[in-house]
């Protein structure tokens, strides 16, 4: 991170260091001055907010996301907090709804008075303009165009554009025609499916169609019939992995030939105990370094989950890792903003992160310069044939960023 004018900066390459240096605070770990009061900041506390879909359509994939926040906040306090301030958080459920998102985010900003927001949500279009107007720093998933439109919103992996990386992966695995299945009536996933279609076509894989599926009212056989009718040989899934498991069983029962199956969610080892055999052979694309590769960052993350969020179970869960990293981004920025951080200085700190790597959990990333540049290098893991673990297929497959449509 580059130094901020008139403020103390914390190097983001130092794993999980949150206390500023004595040159900035006067004494290491000393409490902040009583006169320092800003939204979410008092003399002895920093309060942040977290929003995600705890309920709603396909919310199951997000079920362990809150554990990532709890683990990262717990680790911060274990290390002395931020300038002697204890870190706390409050969360809200946006129910995968833009209307609910706007309402509950407003509660966090107006009633709770948070310093910043972590948003592991696919419906931030509901509150993005409001957050920009209030100048609230936001870190999050980056799945919607709004993440590239507002200067207060930051992502470590921009998913709001289109790349041909996923198409290259499927092409490398023999795929030629792909059917995409998405949850019914979720606008953000429909937009994302269009981006995937562009990436498939650019890599030479024909998008054969998009099927909306509602588990509560439809049979998986409907997807099997569409797969056969479109002569597809690849399935791309943007639905809950347990729902995908039922669809794959229907495809197998119908005698379908699947050259590859690619799921956007699904890097979740807890699912394998129940659904592993049905998900065997499914590939999952990841915006983070797979934990199977090991290393100090992966070990520290796993230990933090075990200590502060044991309810998560296996730490190999995509949305847990993502929310952990998104929380790390915000806390590092609060630390870098100096003794008396306000929302504006936290945004400046985020905008100064040129080589952010979450302590080693992701490839070094220029956060400030990538808001309009989708991530084109991804990792791919595959559920092994026994259905009980993930194999790393590509630790870093890079493609091309496609022009905006």
Q: Write the CATH architecture name of the largest domain.
A: 3-Layer(aba) Sandwich
What proportion strand?
A: 15-25%
**CATH-defined superfamily of the largest domain:** Response regulator
* Envelope shape: globular
Largest β sheet strand count, sense and barrel closure? 7 strands, mixed
- Strand arrangement within the widest β-sheet reads 7-6-8-9-10-11-12
The share of residues in helices is: 25-40%
**What series of H and E elements makes up the topology?**
HEHEHEHEEHEHEHEHEHEHHHEE
The CATH C-level class name of the largest domain: Alpha Beta
Using only CA atoms, what is the Rg?
21 Å
Number of domains: 2
Structural class: alpha/beta
Task: Give me the CATH fold name of the largest domain.
Answer: Rossmann fold
How far apart are the termini?
A: 33 Å
Low-confidence stretches: 1-33
Q: Round the mean pLDDT to the nearest integer and report it.
A: 89
Number of continuous helical runs: 12
Write down how many β-strands occur, each being a DSSP E stretch of 2 or more residues: 12
Pfam families: Peripla_BP_6
Keywords: Signal
Domain Leucine-binding protein: 45-387
Protein name: ABC-type branched-chain amino acid transport system, substrate-binding protein
Features:
405 residues, Rossmann fold, globular, disordered N terminus, 7-stranded mixed beta sheet, 2 domains, alpha/beta
3D structure, described in words:
This protein is an alpha/beta fold. The protein has 2 domains: 22-159 and 292-360, Rossmann fold (3-Layer(aba) Sandwich); 165-286 and 376-398, Rossmann fold, CATH 3.40.50.2300. The protein is 33% helix and 17% strand. It contains 12 helices and 12 strands. The strands form 2 sheets. Strands 7-6-8-9-10-11-12 form a 7-stranded mixed β-sheet, with helices on both faces. It is globular, with a radius of gyration of 21 Å. The chain starts with 21 loop residues before the first helix and ends in a 7-residue tail after the last strand.
């Amino acid at each position: 991170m580059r130094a901020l004018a008139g403020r103390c900066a914390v190097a983001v390459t130092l794993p999980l260091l949150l206390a500023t240096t004595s040159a900035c605070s006067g004494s290491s770990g000393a409490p902040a001055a009583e006169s320092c009061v800003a939204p979410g900041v008092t003399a002895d506390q920093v309060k942040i907010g977290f929003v995600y879909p705890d309920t709603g359509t396909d919310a199951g994939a997000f079920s362990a996301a809150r554990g990532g926040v709890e683990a990262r906040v717990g680790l911060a306090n274990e290390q002395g907090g931020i300038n002697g301030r204890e870190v706390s958080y409050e969360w809200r459920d946006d129910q995968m709804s833009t209307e609910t998102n706007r309402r509950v985010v407003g509660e966090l900003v107006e009633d709770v008075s948070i310093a910043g927001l972590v948003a592991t949500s696919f419906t931030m279009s509901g509150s993005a303009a409001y957050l920009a107007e209030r100048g609230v720093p936001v870190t999050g998933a980056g799945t919607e165009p709004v993440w590239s439109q507002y200067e207060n919103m930051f992502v470590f992996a921009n998913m709001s554009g289109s790349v041909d990386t996923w198409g290259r992966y499927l092409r490398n695995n023999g795929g030629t025609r792909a059917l995409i299945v998405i949850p019914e009536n979720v606008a953000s996933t429909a937009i994302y499916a269009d981006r995937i279609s562009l990436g498939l076509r650019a890599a030479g894989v024909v998008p054969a169609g998009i099927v909306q599926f509602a588990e509560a009212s439809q049979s998986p056989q409907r997807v099997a019939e569409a797969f056969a009718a479109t002569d597809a040989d690849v399935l791309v899934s943007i639905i809950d992995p347990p729902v995908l498991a039922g669809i794959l069983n229907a495809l197998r029962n119908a005698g379908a030939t699947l050259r590859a199956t690619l799921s956007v969610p699904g890097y979740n080892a807890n699912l394998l105990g129940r659904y592993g055999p049905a998900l065997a052979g499914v590939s999952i694309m990841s915006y983070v370094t797979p934990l199977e590769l090991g290393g100090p960052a992966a070990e520290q993350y796993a230990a933090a989950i075990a200590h502060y969020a044991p309810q998560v179970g296996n730490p190999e869960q995509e949305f847990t890792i993502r929310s952990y990293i998104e929380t790390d981004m915000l806390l590092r920025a609060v630390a870098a903003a100096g003794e008396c951080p306000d929302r504006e200085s936290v945004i400046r700190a985020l905008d100064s992160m040129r080589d952010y790597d979450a302590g080693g959990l992701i490839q070094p990333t220029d956060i400030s310069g990538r808001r309009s540049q989708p991530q084109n290098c991804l990792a791919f893991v595959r559920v092994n044939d026994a259905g009980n673990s993930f194999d790393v297929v590509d630790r870093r497959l890079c493609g091309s960023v496609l022009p905006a449509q």
